[in-house]
Protein: Large neutral amino acids transporter small subunit 1
Amino acid sequence: MPVNDLQSPSSEMVILTPLTEKPPGLEALASAPTKDGVREGSAESDSSRVVMKKQLGLLEGVAIILGIIFGSGIFVSPKGVIAEVGAVGTSLVIWVLCGVLSMIGALCYAELGTAIPKSGGDYAYIYEAYGSLPAFLYLWDAMMIFVPTTNAIMGLTFASYVLQPFFDGACEIPKIALQLLAAITICFLTYLNSFYMQVTTKMQNIIMFTKVSALVLIILVGLVYMLLGNVENFNKPFEDTETDPGKLSLAFYSGIFSYAGWNYLNFMTEELRDPYRNLPRAIYISLPLVTGIYVLANMAYLAVLSPPEMIASKAIAVTFGNKVLGGFSLIIPIMVAISAFGGLSVHIMTSSRMCFVGARNGHMPSVLSHISVRSYTPLPSLAFLCLLSIVMLVVSDVYVLITYSSIVESFFIMLSVSAVLYFRYTRPGMERPIKVSLWIPAVFVVVCAFLVVVPIYVAPYEVGMGVLITLIGIPFYYVGVVWQNKPKWVQHAIDNMTFTCQKLFMSAREEKQD
Structure:
């Protein structure tokens, strides 16, 4: 697909009305007669177009953002910030600044998401602004590393909290048990997201309130603890603050990791009802709420646990509960498990749309751009990412892969936001339902550049590996995308694979609005 094809917001607007009968088979879809240029059986004639459904409203949008941000991170790993900065007060300042930075980035994504109302998030914006190769490299990193490893880690986190009560504290959970339960969970949530989207979105609404309730419980317990006079951890809050820019940037990474997900609703723009209103509203509601809750939750943690206790803890929320909740402390691991389960479901749902859009643009096998004729979901993309996630479960240390690629991911986010500045210069007349002040993307790009460049001298090996993983994608780009005149036997094998997958998943290529 040429780059210019992505420039018209209306060229692929998704429409669908409910089915009135069972969808036709693949052969019927391919051979249906046309009338005045419109295929009979389309939305214009009998409401059976094979397109993505617009089934997400404002509440679902908020639930998606909160569902992915409120994963297990805030319950497990806030120690990353305090370990780098060394002071309670500086830690809280970092959490506030991370929230502000996420809000600034989200405002930029609101402009991008309404000016380019396409699913795919960062991939779609990089493709539109900078062309095919940078977009492919982002997709390469995301599909090979970011997405499947994140799914694997969320699945393992859920499995560890579910299995922990069945093992004595001195007995370690068998690795094979963790991997099996994580694999079953990933497969189950992939199945739900493939065939029961309405069930999934309603489940996200319920889990969202469960997660917020868990964090509110932690905040209230911490507040009561402080009101009883236990505020000694806040004496001299900025004493022994770390001043090394490299360590401060790593502290930002730890904080930003817990905020990760604020841009994931942009992956599903084409399935959002009235995206020009609901996309920015969901962002404006979610990000201030997240920032406030995160800062208050960290105050509660720091009131109950000293910095050395936080650094030594493997799961801060559990250590917190054991210290102040007594017999009710079991509620915390239950909440963490629910949170990880919901976060995994949202991540599976949203990331599959990026894979779908990449395939639609010719950057991945075409079958991944097909949609189930029964459920109107990108079933092949969901199955593909499920398989990659299960493969990552057996990798010796998936956390290392995340470390290698986290700085690269930050670079691509910076590149996405820089597209706001680029479009202001190259397309001043571009339709922008939301238009932010230029200082907002400028500040975000400068801060991201600092966060990308400074860690090079702190963790040069990790940065180098992240860059290497990205560069490995270049030969795949030229072989898979640029090389069009492939031998007949290669093209025949690709066609056979595509046809087989179509029959296996009962899927068809998306029909576009003329």
Summary: The mean pLDDT is 78.
